Amino acid sequence: MKFRGRHSEVYVEGCKAVKVFKPQFKYNFWKEVRYLTILQRRGFVPKIYRYNPRDLTVEMEFVNGLKIREFVKERDFDEVVDVLKACMDICFYLDRMRVQKDEMNRPDRHIIVSDRIVFIDFERACESPKPSNVTQFLEYIRKVTDLSVEREFIYRYKRSFMIRDYNILRAMLFKPYIS
Prior knowledge:
Layout: E1 2-4, E2 8-13, E3 16-21, H1 26-39, E4 48-52, E5 57-61, E6 66-67, H2 68-74, H3 77-96, E7 99-100, E8 111-113, E9 117-119, E10 126-127, H4 133-144, H5 151-160, H6 163-173
Antiparallel strand pairs: 1-2, 2-3, 3-5, 4-5, 6-8, 7-10, 8-9
Helix pairs in contact: 3-4, 5-6
């Protein structure tokens, strides 16, 4: 199986995926390796097995599951809400680390739901003093569900990135589904 992206091609070999970057995207290769390595212990990225800077390859775990778009369409709403909460928590963690993942307002190809939730494609990630993973993901939630939250809670969170403000924002968004 083969997947083609703008910066790389991914070959699936059994339970492994080998991502091969195009030569002009060497910097993206290093960003992918850096963020996958940093985030390994959190469990929401594919396990990285090895990488080779000479041929710009990253060998990692192939996560077989549903892309979030498919999951949202196929599952009942309570399951969807649980996954959206977990994804938002991961986005909050990234915000607190000051890592801007990008693409979180359209994560259809970047979040895989299997026995766990996995974020992929960190080649465009960067450090940011004001990351917007949570707020971008809120936009995605608004698009795929009828859930939304008042701007006041979003602005409060964006000013502080504090867990207290995040918990209030999360509670207001998922008010009918608190668990």
